[in-house]
Amino acid sequence: MPGGAGAERLPAQSRPQAIAMARDAGMGGGELP
To answer: What is the greatest pairwise CA distance in the chain?
Structure first.
């Protein structure tokens, strides 16, 4: 999934947080604009 490169290295519980930060940076969150 987009922007998941760094999140893949984190524990499952940290993944949503990393994706949220990536989305804020405009690097991920394919389901959101």
So the answer is: 25
DSSP state, 10? S
Residue matched to tokens 């987009």: 2
Kind plus residue range of the DSSP H or E element containing 21: helix 15-24
Cβ-contact 28, 19 below 8 angstroms: yes
User: pLDDT tens for residues 9-30?
Assistant: 555 566 677 777 777 776 555 5
Q: The tokens of 15 are what?
A: 């993944």
Give the Cβ contact number of residue 28 at 10 Å.
21
